[in-house]
Amino acid sequence: MCGRDTFKASWAEVRAFSAPLQIETPAEDPAPTWNRAPTQRGWAIVASEAGGAAMEMRWGLLPPWAKDTKLAYSTINARLESVAEKPAFRSAWKQRRALIPSSGYYEWMQLDAKTKQPHFVHMDGAPVMFYAGLWERRRDDAGNELLTYSVVTRDADQTVETIHDRMPLILPPTVFHDWLHGSADDAMQIAHAVPSAPLVHHPVDRAVGNVRNNGPQLIEAVSSGGLF
After folding, report:
1. What does pTM read for this prediction?
2. Residue 66 backbone dihedrals phi, psi, to 5 degrees
3. How many CA atoms lie within 13 Å of 136's alpha carbon, on the beta-carbon side?
4. Which domains does the chain have, with CATH numbers?
5. Residue 85 and residue 80: Cα distance in Å, rounded?
């Protein structure tokens, strides 16, 4: 967790649900993505003079010292319990925290030894939620700037634990400014103090397991008769 998510919100919705933090966004709305996977492009909100700025990045954090991009597959998530000490994350934790806007994510419930059922987890009554994140800047093999991000995760709350034991750390707008601009100690206090987000979930078609599938039908609930 979290290894697949969606982002279908407009920038107007992102700005509305991030107040009072002021966020600079592109003029053109982002193209919706219904099955975003690791190493694909996403958006992260980073600290700026105005408050925050949306920047397009690749999912899977790559610290400057990483010899190649393979590390990104193991750094899509950063566990809150060890984020301050892990070599891949500790520098970003101190200086480059982010907010990752998302419309919801997928998690797989283990039904039996051979069967898993995907669920779509999203905010109840809101088009967008914001994961706590980290980001890094480095050069790619061609010498171009490469921006990457990771999602901070925590133990699952009562809503999610029936599906999986981990979940993203979801932050409320009241702490956005301090998360981006405060110290690492401030960030850790925020992470342990925020209440659980009002999440809901439902089972979805197993087609979401194939990263080549991408469309609004992936988040639609399936009946109990369509699970198997």
Report:
1. 0.94
2. -65, 130
3. 25
4. 5-226 (3.90.1680.10)
5. 10
